[in-house]
Amino acid sequence: MASPRFFLLTSQLFPFLLLFITSHPCQAQNVSLSLYYETLCPYCADFIVNDLVKLFDEGLISIVNLRLVPWGNAVMQPDGSFVCQHGEYECLLNSIDACTITIYPDVDRHFRFIHCVERLVLENNINEWVHCFDRTGLGTVPIDCYKSGYGNLLEKQYAAETFQLNPSHEFVPWVLVNGQPLREDFKNFVSYVCKAYQGKQVPQACQSSLPVPLMNHTFKKANLSNPVCYAK
């Protein structure tokens, strides 16, 4: 049976979820961009800190619905526990990210926190991650979310979503634009986003973007020029 603490936390989360549902209607013309990642993969950290952040330059985020899915190459055990590729600390941080995304659904807010954490990964200073709440102006409710067990529930949902990917992810970072995987070309995501956008309000970032081939399901597996963390 769930503890009283769990129900208290759930009641605290409900206003955030309700606000998200009522104030963030789906923008039909926006391009869907999904990142499947794990917190301690150094190549995910590099992509988030040095590449994905470009979404917030020159108005590109205005045409993108960004989804961050912090599960990556973790494995679900028969007893419901998780084994993460980079150890238990990664499982903790994945859950913290999941809680932060849920409690602070505005993408500008939760991305700032995740960007801060991943920068610490690159700096080999990850033990300071808790300070990212202060640095980004967020409260520490996600820590309570994790301690209550709700973070694990969110992670199970992300696990199910990751397992249902078709085609299956081969590595992280695994990037999808409008449901299509970019595979080894993930660092070129800006060009794919700009090509996929069908609206009239073209941001500055797309006015100088180079053309890319049409996306399809016939990608051939190639030697990766960008290092990744492979799924086992």
UniProtKB/TrEMBL annotation:
This is Gamma interferon inducible lysosomal thiol reductase GILT. GO terms for molecular function: oxidoreductase activity, acting on a sulfur group of donors, disulfide as acceptor. It comes from Corchorus capsularis (Jute). InterPro entries: Interferon-induced_GILT. The keyword Signal applies. Belongs to the GILT family. The keyword Hydrolase does not apply. Residues 1-28 form the signal peptide. Pfam families: GILT. Keywords: Glycoprotein, Signal.
